[in-house]
Amino acid sequence: MRFRTAISNVGLLHKISRSLAALARSCVIRLSPEQVHFIVPGNESSTGVQVWSQVKVTTLFDSYKIESNANNEIWLELHLDSLLKVLRSADSSVGSINETRNTASLTDSEVTLKLNKKGTQPIWAFEIRGYTASRKLMSITHEIPVKILSPKRQSELNEPLCPQPDIHVVLPTLLELRNIVSRLSHIADDVKVSANHEGKLELTAKSSRVNLTTTWKELQIPNSLANEDDQPSPPEDQMFTVSVAIKGFLKFLTSHLVGGTAIACICEDHCLIAYVYIGALNEAGGVLTFFIPAKMTDD
Amino acid sequence: MANQNIPVLVAETNDVRPLARLLRGIGLKHNAVMEISESGLAVTVEEVRTLCAIAWIPTGLFSSFTFNPPSTPATFELSLDALLQCLNIFGNAGSSSAGSASSAPSRNKRRWAGEGEVGVDEENEEYTVSRKGKEKRTGMRMEWGGPGYDLSVLLSDDARGPTTTCELRTLEPEELMNAQFDQDDMVLYLIMKSEWFRDALFDLPPSCTRITLLATPPRQAHPPKEPTATISSEGRHNHRADVGQFKILAEGDFGVTELDYPNDKEVMDKFDCAEQVKFSYNSTHFALLHRALHQSVKICLQIERSGFLCIQVMMPLTENVEIGGHSGILEFKMHALEELD
């Protein structure tokens, strides 16, 4: 089992990790020759939100080498806290956190990552190399313990099955959305998310004191492949609705850090699925998929 | 019930900030009573029947204000907390600009209406910062159909952006004490910059429980010479005795804090005091004034012969206010504590 790579986009890896850290304490990373999968299974997060994402190796890494006797795949689990600490350090060294270079930043820096063993404990070793302001070579090494997942545990991790989504809609900027949803969280515990094929999206929060509905209009509806099976398409103005916990919704919205386009799918009374694309939609470097379970309400 | 009648109230504005600012100033309780009249809105909050806070919101604060008086008084109770949350839904009416002023008196653990749980709003810091520079305003349309109807508030921050509709439950108003202040029975009337007064409140010792207001009229006998007094301090004392002064006293665990305001032109805009006045008030009630004083320009302090205190806090004038008009006044009324012997 060998794994060694240079991290070409430390900033993005940092942002992805921060989004995941909002959801859970630990996450599963499945490394394969072409893709890196970040997985937060449902039992890991308190709100039942799951993440199943895939990112192209080339989006994050460079000089990527992986070998194992299981299809050249490695599954490992790690604590996001420790990963974040390392990435924060790496990010500030590379200097992408702040546009203005801080004193800690190094020039000509590169960050490499290796799977190592320390005694019997497998570790991820990060090495940050670069030159200080006085042109001295500096090398910083961080090691974090990881757990290699057994094939049995791997087979237990399955992406949730969802019915055919009732509607897809391109979400407004996640930052704008998060700002509003975080204010709704003072009002109610759940939010009703509804959308129709006219491009209307509604968020409704209800409490004993106030009913609040925020409406977006003329959002894009992506050409879905849903109508392949010749079902009559629903009326344009029919609203499809799912209620989710605001807490869970907000956790997904932390992914505004990643900053791509996001598409939401509503599976009525089942779940809300959100795809957050890394980079442009057509040449996506990857996609983070969030499954937010529906909350059953009386009305 | 198909009530085709015209709504009792339709009020519109392009910028909810002045409105939110006024409401936040009296946000010491979560529920408030709103009264609609020809001259605007009056929102009243009472704290355990001892402190009464009213926000007078003039029609001038709205770009349009239509009131069709119903047969019954246009008064209802609503959740002030929820209303403030709604006004700030797009983040343009928040208290973030309040900054130091709101966080300083943190010994007061009260959660103010319209404010998130402690800590929750901090997450938004990033957002607030990123928005600075591009000035965005939230426009509002408020409508009330009459008794039994919800108060409906429609908000949007730009033409292409999202819109938010809020249906605020209205309740039968709780009975208010709202004791009237008798202008004819007044023993002290002064107007000064609220900055002066606000700074004074910040300087009071946190451990004090009573705040004493003392006013002496002009042309008093000079105080007896103190052996330790310097020439300049003696001159100051004599000057104050000549022109009259207003004094705030507070006794804390570590001594007495005394703040003097001489009746000088640069301090007092107005100072009417015929005889010496001395009354004490509950300091926790004074602490509730902090929020209101923030961003205000002037205060008017009046005391009745009985010690009943009325402090009016004036907000800065917005554009196109008529002469003699105002851009909102916050009024706080409280009774004096019994004198200690």
Provide structural commentary.
The complex is a heterodimer of chains A (299) and B (341). Chain A is 19% helix and 41% strand. By secondary structure, chain A is an alpha+beta fold. In chain A, helix 1 (10-21) packs antiparallel against helix 3 and helix 5 (174-184) packs antiparallel against helix 6 (246-253). The mean pLDDT of chain A is 86. Chain B has 341 residues and is of the alpha+beta class. Chain B has 8 helices and 18 strands. Chain B has helices at 17-25, 80-87, 99-103, 125-131, 194-203, 231-243, 283-287, 290-293; strands at residues 9-13, 31-37, 40-47, 51-58, 64-67, 75-79, 139-144, 151-156, 163-168, 186-193, 210-216, 245-252, 255-262, 268-273, 277-282, 298-304, 309-314, 329-334. The longest helix of chain B has 13 residues, at 231-243. The interface between A and B is medium-sized, with 23 and 28 residues. Strand 14 (210-216) of chain A pairs antiparallel with strand 9 (163-168) of chain B, so a sheet runs across the interface.
- Cα gyration radius of chain A (Å): 21 Å
Quick one: biggest sheet of chain A?
A: 9 strands, antiparallel
Any idea of the CATH class of the largest domain in chain B? Alpha Beta
Average residue-wise pLDDT of chain B: 81
- What is the CATH architecture descriptor of the largest domain in chain B? Box
| Unreliable residue stretches of chain A | none
End-to-end distance of chain A: 54 Å
Distance between the termini of chain B: 63 Å
Number of strands of chain B: 18
pLDDT average of chain A, as an integer? 86
User: How many domains in all of chain A?
Assistant: 2
CATH fold title of the largest domain in chain B:
Proliferating Cell Nuclear Antigen
The rough form of chain A would be described as: elongated
**Overall body shape of chain B:** elongated
Number of helices of chain A: 6
